[in-house]
Amino acid sequence: MKATESKYNQCLYFAANTLARKVEKLALESWKPVDLSPSHAYLLMMVLEEPGLQPCCLSDHLQLSPSTITRLIEKLEEKKLVSRIIEGKMTLVYPTEKGIALLQTLQKCAKDFHNNSCCLIEKEEREAMVLNMCCLADKLS
Amino acid sequence: MKATESKYNQCLYFAANTLARKVEKLALESWKPVDLSPSHAYLLMMVLEEPGLQPCCLSDHLQLSPSTITRLIEKLEEKKLVSRIIEGKMTLVYPTEKGIALLQTLQKCAKDFHNNSCCLIEKEEREAMVLNMCCLADKLS
DNA sequence: ACTCATCATTTGTACATACAACTTCACAAT
DNA sequence: ATTGTGAAGTTGTATGTACAAATGATGAGT
Predict the structure, then answer these.
(1) What fold is seen in the domain A9-140?
(2) Cα separation of A86 and A70, whole Å?
(3) Confidence at residue A2, expressed as pLDDT on a 0 to 100 scale
């Protein structure tokens, strides 16, 4: 059955969750080439763009809780893609050589994901929708 | 930081997930009076409306995987709110007395959730957005 | 009647995320 | 110098969900 045909197709809870799960699935597929989940990949991309970023900053930009950020970094550290340097009460996250080497592939994955989701919906509509979703999310914080 | 200000505010993955998590939070709050998570509550409401419903039907309407439906039912059974009757290769789910007694409160929670999320956004805009989200979800299946 | 494919459901396991409690450090007030 | 306060980060634990494999029942083909 399609989401639009469900009994709860007018419910925000239903719509938001269903969409998120399906987008997650598409994203997972898109980032398979680097063997990372989308969240790990986005975090790594941020660190590559701004080496030495702090967890709290990552938490802000990715809108994930600090504890989740810790867990994501832990896994990337296990994979030797980033490393943490503790400096006073701050933690700085740097990409490793291996992480840096992944940049190109990561960008390609991001582009593929974007293309895959774009081809399903008009560009303008998509952009408006994403903006609306972000606005609504802000109102819910 | 707001979602609209994030580095990834144009990314569908980001928008869909952030929104879903915040909606989940609001919904959790709304259904606290019945001490059920939103998913459990919606499942129970479906069963109350159509006693004897099968898991596969619940799976269709709630757009959750069969295994997730099993887990949800298990918990509702523990709480003595529904009971399963196995009939051949099918399973029928019925509400118990205790479940039936909860109907009114459940409906009030649903209404509260709806009101809480509605007051943040124009009715028309909201409806259009939810419809768009469902459509996009369908295209992603 | 026997076997096989199929469907509905369940079980084991894993992932993404969050909350609450804790640690550690820095800085301000005394 | 001592104490208190608060921020940054981590850890233990819990929730929601899914996938893959297993179970069990039905029905078709032989």
Answers:
(1) Arc Repressor Mutant, subunit A (1.10.10)
(2) 13
(3) 84
